Amino acid sequence: MIKKLQLVALGALLSAGNLFAQTADYKWSLGVNLGFSEYYGDLGNGFLKFDLSTQRLLKANGMGIEEKSPGYLGVSASRYLDRYFDANLAVNYGNWGHFTNTANAFYSRFISADVTARFKFLGKDNARFTPYILLGVGTRSHKINTPNDFGKERMTELTVPAGVGLNIKMEDRVYLNIQSHYGWTNNDQIEGSFKHQRYTWDQYWNHSIGLNFLIGKMKDADGDGVGDNRDKCPNTPKGALVDKTGCIVDGDKDGIADNLDKCPTLAGLEQFAGCPDSDKDGVQDSEDKCPEVAGLAKFNGCPDSDNDGIQDSEDKCPKVAGLSKFEGCPDTDGDGIEDAKDECPKKAGLPQFNGCADTDGDGIQDNKDKCPKVAGPASNNGCPEIKAAVKKVFEQALQGVQFETGKTTLKPSSNIILDKVVKIMKDNPEYKLFIAGHTDNVGKAESNLTLSKGRAASVLAYLVAKGIDPNRVKSEGFGDTQPVADNSTTAGKAKNRRVEFKVEFEAYSE
After folding, report:
1. Distance CA 426, CA 420 (A)
2. Residue 312 belongs to a domain
3. Which residue among 168, 183, 215 closes a domain?
4. Cα dihedral value 260, 263, 264, 267, nearest 10
5. Minimal CA–CA distance to 14: which of 30, 31, 36, 29?
6. Are 19 and 78 in contact (CB under 8 A)?
7. Dihedral of CA 98/104/110/113: which sign?
8. pLDDT of residue 14
9. Does residue 10 carry a pLDDT above 50?
10. H or E stretch at 12
C-alpha cells in the first residue's frame, strides 16, 4: 500500500505544500498538502530510487524492525506580490530516512519551515496552468533515530530549498498544486555515528501534492466578477457578461453585453435591448413592418408621407394629403368628388357635371359655358340670346356713328343712335359692351390705328357720360387691319370707316 501511494505521488510530481495560486484579486491563500521526502547522505543516494525496498524507514522497537513510510503533511500560506512573484511560507511534519541493511539505516521525524520566493515566468494571472520556479531559506529540525541509538538527540539545521512547481486552476478559488524541490542543509549528522563516512552535508528532495484556497474578499466595484486590479472596464453594467479583463462580451460592438442583448449578432440600441432600428424611426426592426423607411409607431414603423393619417402602403395618393373614403386621395374643392375623377378639381361642382359647377344654373357646366355667370341656352353656348331689336340698333350704329373728318370728335348726328345704345345698356344690366373702332386704308397705318383707338374711346366716353358704368364698357382700335369692304372704292372705304358694338358677358374662369 505504501509503495502504491508513493509511486502515484512521485509520478505526478505533486506539491500542495505551497499555496501558490493567489492572484491580484485574492492576494492571500492557504493550502494543505501531502508529500514524501527522499534522503541523500552518508548511507547512500535515495533520490529517485523508486524501488521502495531502498526507501523503507526503519525503527528499532526492541522486538524487531518496523517499516515506516517517508511521508509528511504540510500547511502553507502565500502572499501575491505581482504577476511574476509570490512569497510563500510552508510548514511540514513527517518521516524520512534511509535503509541499506539493519546496521546501516536511520529513521527520523522532522518538522520544517521554508520561506520561498516563487517566480511565475509566464507572468499571467488567473491562467489555467501556472508553472514556476522557487528559491528560499528554511530550517529543518530532527530527532536523530537509528536502529541502535534513537531519540537521544534533536538537531536543527539550516536549509536552502530550490525547485519547480505547477498550479492548475480547478475552480475560481481552488487550485491543485504540484511541486518538487531540492534542499541543501548545513549539517552531516542525521545518520548519527556515520558522520562524514561517504558524503558531506545531508540533502533531501521533497515531492508533494495539495489544494490551495484563495481567501479574502475581492474588490469589484462594478460587481462583474473581475477584480478592480485587473478590470479594464470598471463601469460595466450590472449583470453584463464580461471577459477576463472585465470588459463586456459584445459580439456586435453595440455597447450591450451579449447576455443582455436580444440581438447579439446585430448592432442595436440600448432602448431596444440591443436590437437595431435601421431607419431610426423609434420602432425596432423586429417590430417594424417598413424597417428601411422611417415611419410612425402607430403604423408599425411604416410612413405616412403626406400626413393624412393613411399609411403609404394603403394610400393610393401617398404624396398628396387625402381622405380615407378616397383611400388617401384628395378632394381639393370639397365637393365630394375625388380629384382624379373631378373635371374641375379646384372649384366645387356637381356630380352630374363630374365635379364642375353650373354657376348660372342654366344646365351648362361652367367649363363649357361661354357665359358662366349669366344663364343662357345651350344653343348659344350658355350665353343669353341677343334680341333682334338690339342687333338692329347695332347694325345701324355701324354707319350711324359719324366723326369729324380725320378727327375723333363725334358729329352731333351720332347722338341719336348712341342714345339708343345707352337705353339698351340700361335695359340689359347683364350686358357688357365691347366698342371696336376701324378705318379705311387712306394714310399711314400707324395714324389709322391711333385714329381708330381715339374714335372708339370717344364713343365709350359718351356712354359713360350718359350714366353707363365704366366697368361695363371697353374700347379698342384696329386701324385698317379688319376691312369689311374693298378699300379701292369710295363705297368700300365708307363701310370700312365704322364703329362696331358687340355684347359680351362675363367669361368663365377657373
Report:
1. 10
2. no
3. 215
4. -110
5. 36
6. yes
7. negative
8. 34
9. no
10. helix 2-12
Q: Looking at this protein, which amino acid is placed at residue 36?
A: F
Total number of domains constituting the chain: 3
**What is the three-class DSSP state of 398?**
helix
DSSP 320: S
Question: In sequence order, what are the residues at sequence separation of 6 or more whose Cβ sits closer than 8 angstroms to the Cβ of residue 6?
Answer: 36, 50, 52, 55, 69, 70, 71
How far, in Å, are 441, 446, 450, 482, 496 from residue 490 at the CA level? 11, 21, 22, 17, 10
**Distance set, CA 122 to CA 118, 130, 172, 179 (Å):** 12, 7, 19, 17
What's the pLDDT at 508? 29
How high is the mean pLDDT of the chain?
83
Q: How many CB atoms lie within 10 A of CB 462?
A: 19
Domain that includes residue 482, residue range: 388-504
CA-based nearest residue to 42, from 164, 154, 144, 158: 144
- Phi-psi category of residue 307: left, alpha or beta, with phi > 0 → left and psi -120 to 50 → alpha: left
Mean pLDDT along residues 181-196? 73
pLDDT 10s digits, 67-94: 566 789 999 999 999 999 999 999 999 9
28 with 150, same domain: the answer is yes
Element (H, E) at 158: strand 150-171
Mean pLDDT score, 136-145: 84
Determine the average pLDDT of the residues in 348-372: 88
Q: Which amino acid is at 90?
A: A
pLDDT in tens, 473-506: 999 999 999 999 999 999 999 999 999 999 887 6
- CA-to-CA separations, 328 to 299, 310, 339, in angstroms, rounded: 15, 6, 11
Helices (H), 322-430: 388-400, 414-427
Which domain-ending residue is among 215, 239, 263?
A: 215
Residue 153, pLDDT > 90, answer: no
Containing 457, the helix (H) or strand (E) segment is helix 445-465
Which value, to the nearest 10 degrees, does the dihedral of the CA atoms of residues 18, 21, 26, 28 take? 10
What's the CATH number where 202 sits?
A: 2.40.160.20
Burial of 295 (0-12, 13-18, 19+ CB in 10 A): buried
The answer to whether residues 482 and 349 belong to one domain is no
Q: What is the mean pLDDT of residues 360-376?
A: 86
